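Course assignment 3, question 2. Fill in each field.
Student: A.L.
Task: Predict the tertiary structure for the chain below.
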Amino acid sequence: MTSDTLSTASPSSASAPSSAQAQTQTPRPATRRVVDATTRMLHWLMALSFTAAYITADGERWRLVHVTLGYTLAGLVVARLLWGVFGPRQVRMSVLWRKLQGLPAWLKSLAAVRSPSALQATWRPGQNLLMALAVALILALVAPLTLSGYAVWDEWGGEWLEEVHEFFGNTLLFVVLAHIGLIALLSALRRKNQALPMLTGRVQGPGPDLAKHNHRALAALVLACVLGFWAWQWNNAPVQPAGASWSENHDDDDD
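Answer field:
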C-alpha cells in the first residue's frame, strides 16, 4: 500500500518543481541601453523646469519661483552642453552637429520629390534630422530666454523687454510642443513608443549597449545640485509683506 502510494505520487511531485523551474528559466526579452542616466536626468529636469516656469510666468505671487526655475533651466542647459563636450560619444554635441549638417541636403531632396514612393524614401532619414533640429533649437533658445528674463528681473528696460522675454518663452514652447508632436508621430508610424528610451534608458532588441555606462552617480549629483539650489533659494527668499509684490521687495533690496 505504501509503495503503491509513493509510486503514484512521485510523477506529480516531480512535475511540480520542473514546471516551476521552467517558469524561472523563461528568458526575458533582450534589451540594450541607449541612453544613460545622466542624460535622462538632465532631460527631465529641463522639461520640468521649463514647464513649471512657463506656468508661473504670470502673477507676482509666483515670480520668485519663476525666476528660480529659469535659473535652473539655464544651469541645466550649461550642464548638458558640458556633458556634450566631455561626456560619452553618443551624447556629444558633435553628433548633433553632424546630423544638422545633413539638413540642407535633405531639404533639397525633399523639394525634388515627384512621387509618393520617393517622398516616403526621403521622409525616413528626415525624421532623425527634424528631431535633431528640435533639440538644437531648444538648447539655443534657452540663452536669450534666460538673459531677457534676468534683464526683466533687474528692470533694465521697459515693457518692450518683457515682450522680448515673452516672445522667446512662447517660441520655446512652440518648439517643445513640435518636438513632442514629432515624437508622437514617429511613435505612431513606427508602432513603438519613441519616448520610452528617455524614461527607461533601454530599447528592446539584441545587440551591444550604445551607452556603455549608466553614470548613475553623476545623475544623482545633478539632482542633488538642483534640489540644493532650490533649497538655497527658498531659505534666502526675501520675506514678502502682505499686499506687497516681489518687484517692490526687489527694489528695496537694491536700495
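Instructor remarks: Confidence is low (pLDDT under 50) at residues 1-16. The radius of gyration is 27 Å.
Grade: pending
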